[in-house]
Design a protein that fits this description.
The protein has about 350 residues and is an alpha+beta fold. It has 12 helices and 6 strands.
C-alpha cells in the first residue's frame, strides 16, 4: 500500500514538473485567457437586483394555514380539490411569473430610462447588450434559422409571438422571478436589470401585478355574482318605477272619485307597487351581499420589504471574471501539455 501511495505521489509530482518545464506555454495560455477575461469583463453590463418581500394572508379561501401545513405533510397538495381550497396557492406563483401570458402584459409598462420614456419592451430590446460569449451561439442560430413568415405587428398576440417578441419574453423571464420560502411562507419578488432604478420600479410593479392577478382569480365567481345581482337589481328598479308612476298617475287622475270600483283599482295598483318595491329591496340586499363576498375573497398581502434602488451590482465582479479566466488558462495548459500536444504532433 505504501508503495502504491508513493508511486501515485511520484506520478503527480512528475506531471506537475512536466507542466512546469514548459513555462512559456503556461504563460502564453494564462496571458491569452486573461486577455479574453478582460474583454468579457469590460463588455459585460453591470446588473442590479431589487426585491420585494410579501407575507400572504394566513388563510386561503377559508382553509387555515395549519390545515394547509398538515395537508402538505401527509402528501396532499394545498392546491388540491376541495371546496375551500384555492387552486392558485403560493407554490404556483413562480409558474405565473414564467408564463408568457403574464410576461406579455409587461411589455407596455412605461419607464423613465435616463430621462427618456420607453416601454419595458423597448428598454430590454435597446438597452441590454448581448454578452460576448453568446455571439457564437447567435451566429450559429442565425446560420441555420428559417425565415419568419409572420408579419411584424405592433399588437402582441400571445398565441403567436414573433421571433423578436419570443426573445424579449425569454429575456424578461430570466430577469424576473418569484420565490416562496416554505419555512416562513414569505414571497420574494425580484427583478434584475442594468438600471438600478428600473429594477426597483419593476419590482414594485410586479408586486402590484401579482396582487391584481391573484385578486382577479380569487374574486372571479364573486364578481360574476355581483354583476348578475346588479343587473337584476337595475331591472327590478325599472319595474318598480313603472308601477309607482302608474299608481301615482291613476291616483292623481281619480283623486276626488269616491266610487268603490276606482278605489279597488287604486288599492290593486298600490299593492302591485309594494310588491315591486319589496322585490327591488330584496335584489338590492343580494347585490350588497355579493359585494361583501368580493371583499371577503380579496386576498390580503403584507409588504414586509418594499422595493428600493439597489446601490451595489449583483452581477459577478470584473476582477473575479479575470481570475476565473486565468485559472481556466492554467487548466487549458495542463490539458495541452499532458494530452493534446502528443496527439497534435503525432498527426
Amino acid at each position: 500500500m505504501d508503495n502504491i501511495k508513493k508511486s501515485k505521489e511520484i506520478d503527480l509530482l512528475a506531471l506537475v514538473a512536466k507542466v512546469w518545464e514548459k513555462k512559456k506555454t503556461l504563460y502564453a495560455f494564462v496571458a491569452g485567457f486573461v486577455c479574453l477575461g478582460l474583454v468579457v469583463a469590460l463588455t459585460q453590463q453591470k446588473l442590479y437586483t431589487a426585491n420585494v418581500v410579501l407575507a400572504p394572508e394566513a388563510t386561503s379561501m377559508g382553509m387555515s394555514q395549519n390545515l394547509s401545513d398538515i395537508a402538505s405533510m401527509i402528501g396532499i397538495g394545498s392546491g388540491g380539490g376541495g371546496n375551500n381550497i384555492d387552486a392558485i396557492y403560493p407554490d404556483v406563483y413562480p409558474e405565473i411569473f414564467a408564463s408568457s401570458d403574464f410576461i406579455v402584459k409587461l411589455f407596455d409598462i412605461p419607464l423613465n430610462v435616463k430621462g427618456v420614456t420607453k416601454t419595458y419592451y423597448r428598454h430590454i430590446k435597446e438597452d441590454t447588450r448581448t454578452p460576448i460569449l453568446s455571439y457564437p451561439k447567435l451566429w450559429i442560430s442565425k446560420l441555420f434559422a428559417k425565415k419568419e413568415n409572420i408579419k411584424q405587428s405592433k399588437v402582441v398576440n400571445p398565441y403567436r409571438l414573433t421571433k423578436e417578441q419570443d426573445g424579449i419574453c425569454d429575456a424578461i423571464r430570466k430577469s424576473i422571478g418569484c420565490q416562496l420560502n416554505k419555512g416562513t411562507s414569505l414571497i420574494d419578488i425580484y427583478v434584475t436589470d442594468t438600471d438600478p432604478e428600473i429594477a426597483a420600479c419593476m419590482a414594485d410593479t410586479l408586486k402590484s401585478r401579482l396582487q391584481e392577478y391573484i385578486t382577479l382569480y380569487r374574486t372571479k365567481k364573486a364578481r360574476q355574482d355581483y354583476d348578475n345581482a346588479k343587473k337584476i337589481n337595475a331591472e327590478a328598479k325599472v319595474i318598480y318605477e313603472r308601477a309607482r308612476q302608474k299608481y301615482a298617475s291613476y291616483s292623481d287622475a281619480n283623486k276626488d272619485v269616491q266610487l268603490a270600483s276606482f278605489q279597488s283599482i287604486i288599492e290593486e295598483l298600490e299593492n302591485d307597487m309594494q310588491l315591486k318595491f319589496n322585490n327591488y329591496t330584496e335584489t338590492a340586499q343580494q347585490m350588497r351581499k355579493a359585494e361583501e363576498k368580493i371583499q371577503e375573497n380579496t386576498p390580503a398581502f403584507t409588504e414586509l420589504q418594499s422595493a428600493t434602488v439597489p446601490l451595489r451590482a449583483s452581477s459577478t465582479p470584473r476582477s473575479i471574471i479575470v481570475i476565473m479566466f486565468a485559472i481556466a488558462g492554467v487548466f487549458a495548459d495542463v490539458v495541452w501539455v499532458l494530452f493534446l500536444q502528443k496527439l497534435f504532433f503525432k498527426k
